[in-house]
Structures are given as structure tokens and as C-alpha cells.
Backbone:
């Protein structure tokens, strides 16, 4: 396939490499879902019905939510005369999303359209922007799936290993695939979103992307371990997690996010934002977030450090386990590295196109410009 080298004000075109990245994203998504489903079967056959049910529940919740938004976006695009597949009637759209294959339909359309573009050598900017818009829709859905399924799945599997000393190769495979899925979805979303917004410069490859990736990984991983330790301390800790989710959801309501046309869908979107904020920080409104982000990470670090301390004080026997000290040092090291990389990225490597005093958001489009869901979605 010939590689497009078109350059625009926001970055390069949809290249062969970008096409391959889409393929890898699909494979990672499939691997994550399949490994979790197989793991749930293993749990069920081993007599661990609760673990099997929870593993399936996370898969189901993530899948249902992304199908809901996928259908809504297909419908929204058709009503706004956006370019969509003419063969997809309303009945077809409903059917494929009820069957939980809406995201695979999107992958198929993107891979098919981009393949034709690459083979024909088209360099029209409108076509390039359309392909990146399709890719960004997919990356948004993958972000939902990541924080509704992959991240909670990691918490569950780590809890099973540490608290119940139940280990298997399939568990490790499932956790590894989930971890890769988290890393891939986070960076892919970041790059796709910036490339699809015409008023924002594209995120450079190389060091900036690597630093951003490790900043996110080194801040999300200790959160996963922290929440796992709290659950080990007491199952009622899940109520505290629900409170953290409620605070994040309330913030989304206070900020009056306007991502969805439907009020009901907007409420669901804000609830999902609350889940994402349990694990990592995102700018939910596209405005200056220096203070909220600082407060978020101060509270997050305090919670991360409090988890092993409370486990030691309330369950002294945990000190004698083979995991306590490694986890304690791991939380300390990853927190330090994560915050250090955060400071490095936003002070030295943050792509241009942001207003001077912004840390984690984009300048809102002026009122006279047409706003799309890309402009209203989570900024990073």
C-alpha cells in the first residue's frame, strides 16, 4: 500500500502506519475480551462462581456502554448529514448494537475506507479529516471500555492473587493483555483526538509520546494497587470507592458537560466520567485545570500511600507476606516517577496549541464556530 505523506496544519495524514495501528488496536481489544471470557470459564469450572460472575460483569458493562454510545453517534452523524455508510439503516444499526458488534462494525468501516484511500493515493484534506474522525470515535469508545472493563478487571485479578493466593497462567495472560490494552488505548486516544481537532497541533511521536504514556501508566498502576489493598482491608472499602466515583460524577454535573444531545445519555456519560476519574485525571470541560489537577493528584497520592499503611496497622499479619514490601516500594516508586513525568511533560513536552496558562485542556472554540463531539469530549 502506498503511504500518504500529506501534511497539514495539524499534522500528517492517515498513513499506512496509522492503518496498522488500527489493526493492532482491534487485536488488543479482541485479546482483552477473549482472555477475560476464557478466564471466567476457568473460574466457573473451578467452583469460583463469584469471581466468574464479576469477570463477566465487567466485560458486559463495558460492552453495553460502548454499544450505546456507538449507536448514538451513528444516529447523530446521520441526522447531521455526516458521511456514514449508506447501507446502515436504523434497523441495521439497532441490530448490530444489540448483538454487541457495533464497535467491530466501526473497525470494519475505518479499515475499509482507509485501505481504499491508501491504495488510491488520495490526498484530499476532507477525506483525511474524515478518516481521523472515524478513528477518534473508535478511540473514544476504547477509552470507555478501558476504564469500565480493563482497569476494574486488573483490580479484581490482583485482589484474587493477593488475597486468595489463587494464581494461574491464564490470569497472568489476562492481566498482561489488559495492561497492554490500557497503555495502547490511552496513547491512541490522545493522538487521535489531537489529530482530529483542526485548531490543535498534533502530538509529536518519540519522546513526548513515551513520556506521556509512562506518566499515565505510572499514575494509574498505583491506583489499581491502592484500591486492591483497600478491598483486602475490608470489602466495605468498595463503598468508599463508590464515594470517590460520586465525587467525580458530581464534578461532571457541576461543570455542566455538554457532550451528548440526549439528557439521559449525558447523565450516563457523566457517570462514566466519574469512573474514569477514580483512576486518572482528565479535563472534562476543555478549560484551564491547573488547580483541579493539582488537587486530584495530591488526594490520589495520599490515598495511594494510606492503603499499605492502613493494611499494616489494621492487619499486622500482612507485613509477613511476600507481597507487602514489594507493593509498598512499587507504589512509592511509581507515584514519584508518575508525578515527575507529569511535570516534565506539561512543562517541556506539551504540544503547542494550548493557551499559555492551561495545563490539561484545550481552548474552547469560539461561539460562532461549529462545535462537534470531538471538541466536547475529555481532553488530556
Residues:
Amino acid at each position: 500500500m502506498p503511504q500518504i505523506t500529506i501534511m497539514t496544519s495539524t499534522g500528517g495524514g492517515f498513513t499506512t502506519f496509522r492503518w496498522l495501528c488500527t489493526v493492532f488496536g482491534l487485536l488488543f481489544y479482541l485479546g482483552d475480551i477473549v482472555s477475560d471470557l476464557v478466564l471466567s470459564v476457568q473460574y466457573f469450572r473451578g467452583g469460583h462462581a463469584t469471581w466468574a460472575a464479576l469477570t463477566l460483569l465487567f466485560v458486559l458493562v463495558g460492552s453495553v456502554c460502548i454499544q450505546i454510545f456507538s449507536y448514538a453517534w451513528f444516529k447523530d452523524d446521520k441526522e447531521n448529514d455526516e458521511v456514514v455508510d449508506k447501507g446502515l439503516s436504523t434497523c441495521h444499526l439497532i441490530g448490530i448494537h444489540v448483538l454487541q458488534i457495533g464497535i467491530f462494525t466501526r473497525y470494519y468501516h475505518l479499515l475499509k475506507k482507509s485501505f481504499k484511500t491508501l491504495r488510491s493515493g488520495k490526498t484530499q484534506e476532507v477525506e483525511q479529516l474524515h478518516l481521523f474522525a472515524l478513528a477518534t470515535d473508535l478511540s473514544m469508545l476504547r477509552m470507555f471500555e478501558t476504564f469500565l472493563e480493563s482497569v476494574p478487571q486488573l483490580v479484581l485479578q490482583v485482589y484474587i492473587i493477593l488475597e486468595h493466593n489463587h494464581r494461574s497462567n491464564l490470569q497472568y495472560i489476562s492481566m498482561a493483555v489488559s495492561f497492554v490494552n490500557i497503555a495502547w488505548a490511552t496513547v491512541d486516544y490522545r493522538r487521535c483526538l489531537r489529530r482530529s481537532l483542526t485548531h490543535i497541533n498534533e502530538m509529536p511521536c518519540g519522546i513526548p509520546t513515551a513520556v506521556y504514556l509512562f506518566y499515565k501508566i505510572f499514575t494509574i498502576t498505583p491506583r489499581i494497587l491502592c484500591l486492591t489493598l483497600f478491598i483486602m482491608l475490608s470489602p466495605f472499602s468498595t463503598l468508599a470507592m463508590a464515594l470517590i466515583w460520586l465525587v467525580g460524577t458530581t464534578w461532571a454535573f457541576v461543570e455542566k458537560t455538554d457532550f451528548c444531545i440526549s439528557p439521559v445519555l449525558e447523565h450516563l456519560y457523566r457517570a462514566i466520567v466519574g469512573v474514569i476519574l477514580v483512576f486518572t485525571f482528565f479535563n472534562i470541560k476543555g478549560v484551564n485545570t491547573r488547580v483541579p489537577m493539582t488537587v486530584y493528584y495530591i488526594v490520589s497520592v495520599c490515598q495511594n500511600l494510606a492503603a499499605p499503611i492502613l493494611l499494616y496497622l489494621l492487619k499486622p499479619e500482612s507485613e509477613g507476606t511476600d507481597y507487602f514490601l514489594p507493593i509498598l516500594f512499587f507504589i512509592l516508586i511509581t507515584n514519584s516517577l508518575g508525578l515527575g513525568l507529569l511535570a516534565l511533560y506539561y512543562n517541556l513536552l506539551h504540544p503547542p496549541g494550548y493557551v499559555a496558562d492551561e495545563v490539561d485542556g484545550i481552548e474552547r472554540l469560539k461561539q460562532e464556530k461549529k462545535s462537534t463531539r470531538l471538541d466536547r469530549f475529555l481532553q488530556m
